[in-house]
Amino acid sequence: MQATAHAPQPVTPAADPAMDYRKALSCFGTGVTVVASRWDEQDWGMTCNSFASVSLDPRLVLWSIRREASSLAAFTQSGGFSVSVLSQAQQPLARQFATGSMAERFAGVPSQREASGRLRLSDALAWFDCDLHQLVEAGDHCILIGAVRSFGHSDAKALGFWRSRFVQFEDMAA
Ligand SMILES: Cc1cc2nc3c(=O)[nH]c(=O)nc-3n(C[C@H](O)[C@H](O)[C@H](O)COP(=O)(O)O)c2cc1C
Predict the structure, then answer these.
(1) What are phi and psi of 156, to 5 degrees?
(2) Class of 30-163 per CATH?
(3) Inter-CA distances, 46 with 17, 107, 155, Å
(4) Is-above-0.85 flag for pTM?
(5) Which atom from ligand 1 is nearest to the alpha carbon of 47?
(6) Ligand 1 centroid to 40 CA: how many Å?
(7) Whose C-alpha lies nearest to ligand 1, atom 21?
(8) Quick check: CB of 36 below 6 Å from ligand 1?
(9) Of 28, 26, 31, 44, nearest to 124 (Cα)?
(10) 88 ligand 1 Cβ < 6 A
């Protein structure tokens, strides 16, 4: 017997339009990454879900950073960034890299330093080490476009972010 189709019902808008807009955006499921840079003789890192591929040839990726982030200069002036795509096993790191000092974020986290000087997280689902290609100021964020100089990937399971929650991407194929 076929399952009865359920027509999606519009959700009553929240009283606060800004909150409602955020809720609408959160319906778009993403992966979760940690972006990192090396600047001012220090490692910088933060959780990021605005990562996306831009171009295959040349290999370009993007993400956007809030202009008020304390690490804005580290990412816009250091000449590049790494992107570590988090696996399900790395979910605690998504919270760890969204708060606290940079020393606290990297404390006890297995990582490898690329020839560029930037760290990437070990055991990530995938990683990209990028030179900054273009910086675009856009509203309260800056878009960083990076040229991929090296990358890798593993067979780990993917961590997702959807409706403001961490979720597990599962392969639905039979
Ligand atoms: C799942 C998740 C995704 C995030 N994505 C972004 C993002 O794409 N861009 C951004 O600027 N902040 C993003 N943040 C917030 C930053 O991680 C957080 O504000 C940042 O680590 C604060 O660091 P700061 O010390 O540089 O201000 C995200 C946070 C979480 C939990």
Answers:
(1) -65, 165
(2) mainly beta
(3) 27, 13, 23
(4) yes
(5) 17
(6) 20
(7) 98
(8) no
(9) 31
(10) no
CA-proximal residue: ligand 1, atom 10 (nearest): 65
Confidence bin at 10 (pLDDT 50/70/90): confident
Instruction: Give 65-113 pLDDT, tens digit per residue.
Output: 999 999 999 999 999 999 999 999 999 999 999 999 999 999 999 999 9
For residue 70 and ligand 1, the question of a CB distance below 6 A is answered with: yes
**Nearby residues of 48 by Cβ (< 8 Å), 6 or more positions away:** 32, 33, 34, 35, 63, 65, 83
Q: Which two tokens stand for residue 50?
A: 């605005």
Look at residue 171 in the predicted model and tell me its pLDDT.
76
Q: Kindly report the protein residue whose alpha carbon is nearest to atom 30 of ligand 1.
A: 47
Is the Cα dihedral 80, 86, 92, 98 positive or negative?
positive
63 Cβ below 6 A of ligand 1:
yes
> Which secondary structure element, helix H or strand E, spans residue 20, and what is its range?
helix 17-26
Residue extents of the structural domains in the chain: 30-163
Structure tokens at 90: 């790395």
Tell me the CA–centroid distance for residue 8 and ligand 1, in Å: 31
